[in-house]
Write a structure and sequence with these properties.
- The structure holds three protein chains of three kinds.
- By secondary structure, chain A is of the alpha/beta class.
- Chain A is built from 25 helices and twelve strands.
- Chain A has helices spanning about 10-30, 30-60, 65-85, 85-110, 115-135, 160-180, 185-195, 195-200, 205-230, 235-240, 240-255, 260-280, 290-305, 310-320, 340-345, 390-395, 420-425, 445-450, 460-470, 485-500, 515-530, 545-550, 570, 575-580, 585-590; strands at about 140, 235, 350-360, 365-375, 380-385, 405-410, 415, 430, 505-510, 535-540, 555-560, 560-565.
- In chain A, strand 11 (about 555-560) and strand 12 form a beta hairpin.
- By secondary structure, chain B is mainly α.
- Chain B has helices at about 5-40, 45-65, 70-95, 105, 115-135, 170-190, 190-200, 205-210, 215-235, 245-260, 265-285, 290-305; strands spanning about 150-155, 160-165.
- In chain B, strand 1 and strand 2 (about 160-165) form a beta hairpin.
- By secondary structure, chain C is of the alpha/beta class.
- Chain C has helices at about 40-50, 95-100, 105-110, 110-120, 120-125, 135-150, 165-185, 195-200, 220-225, 225-230, and strands at about 1-10, 15-25, 30-35, 55-60, 65, 80, 155-160, 185-190, 205-210, 210-215.
- Chain C has a six-stranded mixed beta sheet with strand order 6-7-8-3-9-10, sandwiched between helices.
- Chain C is globular.
- Classes of the chains: A alpha/beta, B mainly alpha, C alpha/beta.
Chain lengths: ~600, ~325, ~240
């Protein structure tokens, strides 16, 4: 349900049409109060768009956008009062201030996730609020400039201000629309849906989040600066207050997050409504504005948790539901590769060299002094009882966690301490025990995200993605949402996503789990073909018969340590392995 | 400023910090209970506290009019009464609204409903504080008790140089707060109800396997949580004037305390609140008065960034 | 006692279980085996109500279990010992057992159950005051089983009790389960990846693959089935 990647001009035209209509309506508004509303609607729409750029796409909820807004407002006001800087220059500079603040806030705060991020963001504007009060800026008034109104953006005709606001809003909409269809949008949406999976697929999550907060802060700073010019008075509660942050989030939430139109819809509906109620009933019912906003978001959360835009789109889409497409195209099953070929496939260089790696969680020693080598071109099977440390080993190999001790050499370089996206870029792709697709993206978008790591342009990424999708046999499903796929298709999707990063090694974590007999054969066929293409495969699996036929070599883990390694034939006869993994009955019954 | 004067100021701030901190601690315990059991960040906690203050205010008016309980102690009884009243309100709010986005139903939503929970409680906060403006008016009110304008003098110490004044009203409030926290800790530790709440907090799925109604546990935790914070609010009401927007000022105070104490740990939350009270009061020794709250935010940010598990918390891993 | 018929269940509308039929009689020991991801845990969770059934029926002692709220099912006499133990880590061993006895029958039989639990698992008496999170894996598994027994269940559902345990410990746990089944005269429904052991002790067995029951029957019949021999017993 995320913004579709595409190059159609539809969105641009829609924005232009909306702008023309808004401008025309503004032209006909004579009453200065309504003119003010026409000015304030775009202000909050831009604020919502700014919030949306960060929180809507990345999913990191910010309760602190007032910090950027307020800094922008104070910057423009102080620049005009103290240095005589016109808002025409002040507002763009306020954007710089907001962007810089975004960077300053982002660097430490992105270490936090979820609740902690939201709470920390809340603290910034409130801390600034008291600082600005203490600095003696309880109330800054911008001097009226009657002589040259245009220089100071203080037009006699308020409609001009409204048009300026509209211009800012359209600019923000174009920016969002452009970004959402570019690498920016898909990367952030991927982060929102599964940050770890995105990182493992080669997305530098921190860099993208920082870009988002800088842009977001810049936009909020600019519109804060503009707001100061509109109201001519700046007070700390009015620009740093909780309601400012809340309003940014509310217009976006109400309309729908992760879209260009959501914040705009929210602002167009809610701002006039609350202004109107405030004007009509403000004397009788003080606080009506806040109550309306509160009710609006409570209602949205309960009735249309994704916002009005998505709800409407869902309803429309459901009406035009496309027929279910054909299932997986048959994968050419190359019969079991003869042993001769296996030997030819396996190279003489080590891809991975794990040296004495240990990792403990609290008291639990998940991986203990493990050493193993993965030769280029081989298919290495990792088996062992549940809880033996197999997945932990994968997490160590792709950089999700760092070992307490030991080295992990990838192509001769120690990768301990590298971030997952770097390890992905160095040629390590992985899949997950419990599939982690980006559920609300299409198959193609999922794989495109995986392709970014080694592609320069969007078109190239799309090409790589298409061929990866074809390699696993999912082309017929390319435009379907990942959330609608069957288990087998999801497994193949993860393979394709990993494949799109053009890996040297694929780490496959229980890729066959939950598959029926025929599906197992199909997926094994795909894995085998990848191996024949020269990709080294490390696979964790419980389905022993399939594994015995697939792998060149086994490593058996038990209690975090290597219990045995060797050929399938040796391993299945090893008494220690039988005791630990296959069960002592294996021997009894087998005898 | 000479050494003796500084010592006096320091002791004065220390005692004031401990007394306010005890009440903050009680408020934090309420918030922490909700987070601990439900894993929900309740943004409206400050506003439930504000409602508690007004319940105490009106109850006090009622007691006062009938001259019951005496002027000195009526405010504290009124504060305690805020507990059950807000507890019931909390149960209702949970049943009608919060339960829709938490627990089993929350986990069906995007990012396990965290998003929806934050927004829903933010909406609640806006409704309560702005609705409060209509119901209670915007003029600050306060509860006066003869105790709040009296102080015990400790000292003079160190010759005649140092004497510390301890506000009687605040002292009674702090004692009640500590007693309430001890009572609550006993309830959680000893009673079947308390244990079942802790079990639901530890592992809601396993709690269902025990036959514990997790939704009911959540409802009770929400009710207790806002009720306890409301008592804290009622206790503060006799030393500070308040208005419907007062919740905002305290929501950060509470979160700072809870994060400091390690989210979800009851004892930690009390110590966290106590620490925040101390930070707030001691900061006045080196910072201008207006920056008291900024000091809290800075401490809060530093803690969140450097030690998200809190000063008193353990690294909790949920399986 | 437990009758499941035509059961489909899964997450978010995507079925994991397809048309599962299964029966456990009073006092019976039934094993469910199958590969990882076959839906064994999902089946248990559906019986307990954590996963919603999409269609089909689950009856317990004749009553429609799907109409019973999840938290009420233990009160009917079903104890679910979940995969990965899932003890309450911040509660003491004793408090964990108390939570196990949350049901009315559990409270009624508390003294008797506690005595029996301590005979079966003496280590739990020794470590009564310790926090459950501080126990070793094997001890946690014993606690999880004991916690299930504390409710005086008629049906004990055990999800991979050997998971992540050393073979010797797993064998010990198995012996206790067999002893408990013999002495307490309760029905046991066991999910296990140690197929040979599970089939050795069970009265009957089911093989679950890709969400479907592909085979069922007596342990001997299953053990002599070629497919089982090849897939699970490595012969």
């Amino acid at each position: 349900m995320s913004g579709a990647i595409g190059r159609s001009t539809g969105p641009v035209i829609a924005i232009i049409v909306f702008g023309v209509v808004y401008a025309a309506v503004t032209g006909f508004v004579g009453n200065s109060y309504y003119q003010l509303i026409m000015t304030v609607v775009p202000v909050w729409a831009v604020m919502g768009l700014a919030w949306n750029l960060l929180s809507g796409y990345s999913g990191l909820v910010s309760f602190g956008h007032a910090a950027f807004f307020g800094l922008g407002a104070y910057f423009v006001a102080l620049a005009q009062i103290h240095w005589g800087v016109t808002p025409w220059i002040g507002i763009p500079l306020a954007g710089v201030v907001g962007g810089a603040a975004g960077l300053l806030v982002g660097v430490p705060t992105f270490r936090l996730r979820g609740h902690y991020f939201a709470l920390a963001m809340l603290a910034y504007p409130l801390a600034l609020l008291y600082v600005f009060e203490w600095l003696g800026y309880q109330e800054l008034t911008l001097p009226m400039q009657r002589e040259s109104p245009a220089t100071w953006m203080q037009f006699d005709d308020q409609r001009i201000q409204a048009l300026l606001a509209l211009g800012l809003m359209l600019g923000a909409m174009f920016l969002t629309s452009r970004l959402e269809r570019a690498r920016f949008g898909l990367s952030l949406i991927a982060i929102k849906q599964d940050e770890a999976a995105a990182e493992a697929a080669g997305i530098d999550t921190l860099a993208w989040k920082l870009k988002a907060i800088v842009l977001s802060g810049a936009l909020a700073g600019m519109i804060g600066g503009f707001y100061a010019v509109v109201l001519l008075v700046v007070t700390p509660p009015a620009v740093f207050g909780m309601l400012v942050s809340a309003q940014a989030l509310i217009v976006a939430m109400f309309g729908g997050v992760g879209t260009v139109w959501g914040p705009v819809i929210g602002a167009v509906v809610l701002v006039p409504l609350s202004e109107f109620l405030h004007a009509q009933l403000g004397n009788v019912i003080p606080g009506i504005q806040g109550v309306v906003y509160g009710l609006a978001i409570v209602a949205v959360i309960l009735l249309a948790p994704e916002g009005v835009y998505w709800k409407v789109k869902d309803v429309l889409l459901r009406r035009a539901k496309k027929p279910a497409d054909a299932d997986l195209a048959p994968v050419a099953l190359s019969a079991f590769a003869p042993v001769v070929e296996r030997v030819a496939r396996i190279g003489t260089t080590a891809v991975f060299e794990v040296r004495n790696v240990s990792k403990a969680f609290g008291g639990l020693k998940a991986v203990q002094d493990v050493s193993l080598t993965v030769m280029s071109g081989e298919i290495l099977g990792i088996i062992g009882p549940n809880g033996a440390g197999k997945t932990t080993l994968f997490n160590l190999l792709n950089g999700f966690i760092a070992p307490d001790q030991g080295q992990i050499m990838l192509g001769g370089r120690n990768i301990v301490g590298d971030k997952p996206y770097r390890i992905c870029a160095a040629g390590v792709g992985r899949t997950f025990q419990v599939v982690r697709p980006f559920r609300r993206m299409t198959v193609e978008q999922n794989v495109i995200v995986g392709a970014y790591v080694h592609t320069a342009s969007n078109d190239e990424a799309r090409e790589v993605a298409r061929s990866a999708i074809a390699d696993v046999g999912l082309s017929a499903q390319a435009q379907r949402l990942a959330g609608e796929l069957s288990n087998k298709q999801l497994r193949l999707l993860e393979l394709a996503r990993a494949l799109a990063g053009q890996p040297k090694v694929l780490l496959l974590d229980e890729t066959l789990a939950g598959l029926g007999g025929d599906d197992v054969e199909a997926v094994i066929g795909v894995v085998r073909r990848l191996a024949e293409k020269g990709i080294t495969i490390v696979i964790i699996e419980h389905t022993m018969p399939a594994m015995v036929r697939l792998v060149d070599r086994f490593v058996v883990l038990d209690h975090g340590a290597v219990l045995a390694q060797g050929s399938p034939a040796d391993i299945t006869r090893d008494p220690a392995v039988i005791d630990a993994y296959l069960g002592k009955r294996w021997r009894i019954e087998g005898a | 400023m000479n050494a003796a004067q500084f010592t006096e100021n320091f002791l004065q701030a220390l005692s004031a910090g401990l007394l306010t901190g005890a009440v903050y601690g009680l408020m934090c315990v309420g918030l922490s209970l909700i987070f601990g059991v439900m894993r929900v960040i309740n943004f409206a906690q400050g506003d439930f506290m504000m409602l508690g203050m007004y319940v105490a205010y009106y109850a006090f008016g009622l007691f006062g009019a009938h001259m019951v309980f005496g002027a000195a102690f009526a405010p504290y009884l009124a504060a305690l009464l805020a507990g059950p009243v807000i507890f019931i309100l909390g149960l209702l709010v949970h049943k009608l609204l919060v339960s829709r986005v938490t627990g089993m139903r929350g986990s069906a939503l995007e990012s396990e409903g965290h998003y929806a929970q934050l927004i829903l409680t933010l909406g609640l906060a806006l409704i309560i504080q702005n609705g409060g403006l209509y119901v209670f008016g915007s003029a600050p009110v306060s509860i006066t008790t003869p105790l709040s304008s009296n102080a015990w003098e400790i000292g003079p110490l160190h010759g005649d140089l140092i004497s510390v004044f301890v506000n009687q009203g605040q002292t009674v409030a702090a004692v009640i707060a500590v007693a309430a926290v001890i009572g609550f800790v006993l309830l959680m530790g000893r009673s079947r109800l308390g244990k079942s709440l802790r079990a639901a907090a530890d592992n809601p799925e396993a709690a269902v396997y025990m036959g514990i109604d997790v939704e009911r546990a959540h409802r009770l935790a929400f009710g207790f949580g806002v009720g306890i914070t409301a008592i804290g609010g009622g206790l503060l009401a006799s030393s500070y004037p308040f208005q419907p927007y007062v919740g905002l000022e305290y929501v950060i105070v509470m979160y700072a305390g809870v994060v400091l104490g390690g989210m979800g740990s009851v004892g930690g939350a009390f110590l966290g609140g106590l620490t925040i009270g101390l930070v707030q009061q001691l900061s006045t020794l080196v910072l201008p008065n207006q920056l008291q709250n900024t000091a809290i935010f800075v401490v809060f940010l530093v803690i969140v960034l450097l030690r998200p598990q809190g000063l008193f918390g353990r690294v909790a891993r949920r399986t | 006692m437990l009758e499941i018929d035509g059961l489909c269940a899964g997450y978010g509308g995507v079925p994991v279980l397809r048309d599962v039929a299964l029966r456990v009689d009073a006092g019976e020991f039934v094993a469910i085996v199958g590969p990882n991801g076959a839906g064994k845990s999902t089946l248990f969770k559906t019986i307990s109500g954590i996963v919603n059934a999409l269609s089909g029926t689950i009856r317990f002692e004749g009553a429609d279990l799907l109409a019973v709220a999840p938290a009420s099912r233990p009160h009917r006499g079903i104890a679910h010992v979940p995969e990965g133990r899932q003890v309450f880590p911040s509660l003491s061993v004793f408090e964990n057992l108390e939570m196990g006895a949350y049901t009315e029958t559990g409270r009624r039989d508390w003294n008797q159950n506690l005595e029996r639990i301590h005979t079966w698992f003496p280590v739990l008496a020794e470590r009564s005051k310790a926090l459950a999170g501080a126990l070793s894996g094997g001890q946690q598994q014993m606690l999880a089983i004991a916690r299930g027994l504390a409710s005086s269940p008629k049906l004990l559902m055990l999800d991979e009790p050997s998971m992540g345990l050393a073979p010797a410990t797993a064998d010990e746990i198995f012996e206790r389960i067999v002893a408990i089944h013999d002495q307490a005269r309760i029905a046991v429904l066991l999910v296990e990846q140690r197929v040979a052991e599970a089939l050795h002790y069970a009265d009957r067995g089911y093989v679950l693959e890709a969400g479907q029951v592909v085979l069922q029957g007596s342990p001997d019949a299953l053990k002599s089935n070629d497919r089982i021999r090849q897939a699970y017993l490595g012969m």
